[in-house]
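Work Package 3 (structural annotation) set out to generate three-dimensional models for the target panel prioritized at the project kickoff. During this period the team completed the workflow that converts sequence records into discrete structure tokens, so that structures can be stored uniformly alongside our sequence database. As a representative example, we reproduce one entry of 319 residues exactly as it appears in the project archive.
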Amino acid sequence: MVKKTAILMALSGANVFCGECPSLDFYFDVNKTIIMSDAVSGKTEADVIAGMFAEYEPKYALFGMSGKETYYDFITQDLEANGFQGQALKEQRNIELQFTLTEIKKKLNSKKKAELEQRVAKIESILLESKLYFGLIPSFISFLKALSKQKEYPYRIIFRTFGTDFRSIKQGVRTLFPHKDIDFVDGTFKGDEFIISEDLRYPRLDFHLIFSKHPAHTFFTFTDEYDFWKKTGFIKKGGKPFPIFFDQEQISIFFDDNVNLGIILPYDGHTQSTEIDSDLLQSVLRGVNPLQATENENYYIEEFEALKQKIASKLLHRK
């Protein structure tokens, strides 16, 4: 078991990539990444739990067998074979996924059914506990606590969403740090612009310049534009801009449950080139497993621990 303080070891114990420590920019999607709800899609908590098992738990594992295919994969393939595609496929799949747990339980023996019900009960308890921090799940709370204790690395937390969850985010963070005067810098992507206020606007891909104007701020809440992404045909060109910095001065990492859906536009933060080394991209663009992030209180701490050596090796080769 990795202790909650493992992040301190990851950041400063080995100290393998820190001469003068780089600034760490942690980007976090909101829905199904640090808050296990999906207000954008209008899903209930029960829908989200069912969806997590359907999409992220190999269906054979539920029966004590080997195999990687999930119910999400199975349903998708079945619908495609029956002529569903595009938005119609997505809508019908969402309908069928809502009944996944019910259907699974019908097929399980009594022992496996009890094990599944125990896991679901634990997740429900965890989500109830998360309400103490306005929905922020324990693994993210543990990460923030540990990160705030280390002194070697300056860091920023940048929250990103197409939705409207920032009120909960702000309340949760302020509840976690009641004795700190925490202020958030808000921004909105609109077309080719990034807007802080009527008098403060940036080109869309230069939004990160706002950081230099607020060097003392730790928390940022940026609203991405769903309609712009939709207008571009749901491809990464219209997705969430992610400027990658990976050097001795600055490292950026993005956690999102939908990294493979063209929802994020990664590019070199210095040159704006979208030609990014695939290995580097895998290091800094992290696909979140919502089921594991919910069940494992140390999920984000362990994620960063796993990244540490890879980041260290890459920076050493760049010297």
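The chain is about 45% helix and 15% strand.
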